[in-house]
Structures are given as C-alpha cells and as structure tokens.
Design brief:
41% helix, Rossmann fold, 12 strands, alpha/beta, 347 residues, disordered N terminus
Length: 347
C-alpha cells in the first residue's frame, strides 16, 4: 500500500538525515522519494530531478547496501559486447566508445554502476552464466553478433535484457537500433544518384546488422536497373584487417567507382587503401560509411555516412531496460537512419 504524501515542510530544512526527512522536504511520500533516488521509471523526470537535487544539496546518501540487500538488487547493469562474428574487435572501436559513453552517463544519472564485458562465445551458455551470476540487475548487449539464437533462449526466461542491433523476425528479446536495411538502401541510392555505376559493399555479413545493410544496398542496386553493377567483399571489420582485405581486392580487381562500407571504421580503411593505390576520393571512387562516429567529419576528405542517433538510442536502451526490470511492458524501437553527405561522395 502506498502511503499518502507527506505535507510540505512549513520551514526550511537544515538537516536531511533520512528518507523521511527528504520526503518531508520534497513534499512527497517516502516511497516516492526512495524510488526517485533509485531512478525508478514510475517517478516522472521532473520530480526525480527535484528530489535528487534536494538530496545532493544536503549531502544525503541512502544506505544503498542495506537497500540493495533488502530488495535483492546489485544496483549494477551489465554491458556486453559479444564477438562471435568478429573476435578481433576491441572496446576501443569508436562506435562502441560513443555508445558506451552515452549509456554510462544515463545509468550514472539513475544511480547505477556499469559492469563491462567483452565476450568471445565458445559455447551456448555464456549468456546464461552472465544473467545468473548475481552481479547485475539487467543486461544491455551491443549487437547480436551471430548469437541471436542464444539471446532468444535466455530472453525467454530473463526479462531485463535489451539489445542494440537489428530487429529480426520472431525474436523474443527487445532491440533498439537503426533500420539497417533502409540505411543500406539510402547509401546505395545516394551513390547511384551522383552517377556511380560500379558499386562495392564492404562488411562482415555474418552479423545481422551488417547483413541487413548489405540487403538494403542490394535492393537499391536491383531497382536501379541493368546499368548499375555491384559486388560485395566480406571482410573482418577491424581497421588493419579491413585495410589489408581492401588493398588485396584493389590489386586483383578493377577499382569500383563507389564504395559503401558497413561501418565508418571500414570506410576509413578504404580511404587509406584507395590513397595508397593512387586513387582519389571522390573523383575516382566515392565512399560512404555507416554510423557517423565523431572521426567521420575529420577524415580527408570528410566522410559521407549513414548516421545512427546514439543519444536517442542510448536513452531508449536504458528506458526499455528499466521498464523490464520493473516488470512493465516495453517495445523495441527502430531508428530512422539519416544520410549525412560530406566530401567523400560529392557529385
């Protein structure tokens, strides 16, 4: 039963030593004050911020350990990068670092810690071990990798899990991510619109996000008619591996006049390989990436790319996760990918 709100204090509060004091100062119930400090989604943002600022102003910190033991909570969220498809990828990847920063900020504001893991799956139980470890209250996965079946199995019994990645038919888990197929189509349509006719896709199609980007790219090429041809180069998407694969391709094949890379990191590797081959961008080869990481605007030339709104995406991941922790319904969210035209693909 929820207690009725306490009346506002009639005078200035000089000491806040308990939740009762805080609730009285804020003019709320004790339960509302407690939920506000824990970032519970049932408290609206304006009220939560008001209570948090009041607590901060008086140096009040609830006994988190005692509260967590009572509620059987760890006050920690797991953030996992599964790498079944790309074991060489590192946490230093600029896309991952950008998303991690936004997630860390949002979770900190809710009073939660982050437990960060980079997982190379060796069997089908790695995710079971994580959710059963007792170390976390919920889990955010950055990408499905090639582990969608494993995630589906765990999501059937463990609700507080949300994935940044592609929305797949019949999946049991919730996702936030861009419409990858639409993003791939927009990249190809742009390249075709500026007169390019020999297109090359670069990416690892074993991960669902990248497979969807390739499918959208191929859709647009098919719609363009017989005058447009396209090829795809499957490669590892770490910078050095991508550069090596692209350089080898350019040695053994006629150069395309346009490249769509499944990530900005791969697109930057393409810029380097093209330059080493004596090809100019965009005069000889136009290049489009995907993600719009911060570095994309600072390459030479600046990189055209498909932007994923990571600010909105991180906020949605956190909101969906906390709804699931609270036992509330939630839905997946698909973001609209935006074409950002820069110097690497001007007509």
């Amino acid at each position: 039963m929820i207690a009725p709100p306490l009346p506002p204090s009639s005078g200035d509060v000089t000491t806040i030593a308990s939740l009762v004091d805080l609730a009285q100062a804020a003019g709320t119930s004790v339960s509302t004050a407690s939920r506000a400090l824990s970032g519970h989604s049932s408290v609206n943002e304006k009220t939560r911020l008001r209570i948090q600022k009041l607590a901060d102003a008086h140096g009040f910190q609830p006994n988190r350990l005692a509260r967590n033991l009572r509620l059987q909570r760890t006050q920690s969220i797991g953030l996992v990068l599964p790498l079944g498809h790309e074991a060489g990828q590192h946490l230093s990847d600029p896309f991952f670092l950008s998303l991690l920063g936004h997630l860390a900020d949002g979770l900190t504001e809710r009073g939660y810690d982050l437990v960060l893991s980079r997982v190379i799956p060796h069997d089908g139980t790695w995710l079971d071990r994580l959710v059963d470890s007792g170390r976390i209250d919920g889990l955010i996965l950055i990408g499905q990798s090639d582990q969608s079946a494993v995630i589906d199995k765990v999501a059937a019994r463990y609700a507080p899990i949300v994935v940044w990645g592609a929305r797949l038919p019949g999946q049991r888990y919730l996702t936030v991510g861009s419409d990858n197929r639409l993003g791939g189509a927009r990249a190809a349509e742009h390249l075709i619109a500026i007169g390019r006719r020999r297109l090359l896709y670069l990416g690892n199609a074993s991960a669902p996000e990248f497979a969807e980007r390739l499918a959208g790219f191929q859709d647009a090429v098919s719609r363009a008619g017989p005058g447009v041809a396209a090829a795809a180069l499957d490669l590892h998407m770490t910078p050095d591996a991508a550069h090596l694969a692209i350089a080898k391709y350019l040695t053994g094949h006629p150069a395309p006049d346009a490249i769509f890379a499944a990530s900005d990191v791969v697109a930057m590797s393409a810029l380097r390989a093209l330059r080493e081959r004596g090809l100019s961008v965009p005069q000889d080869v136009a290049v489009v990436g995907y993600d719009d990481v911060t570095l994309a605007a600072h390459t030479a030339p600046a990189l055209t790319t498909i932007r994923q709104d990571l600010v909105v995406g991180a906020k949605a991941l956190i909101e969906i996760l906390f709804r699931r922790i609270a036992g509330e319904p939630a839905q997946s969210l698909q973001l609209d990918p935006q074409l950002i035209v820069r110097g690497s693909s001007v007509a």
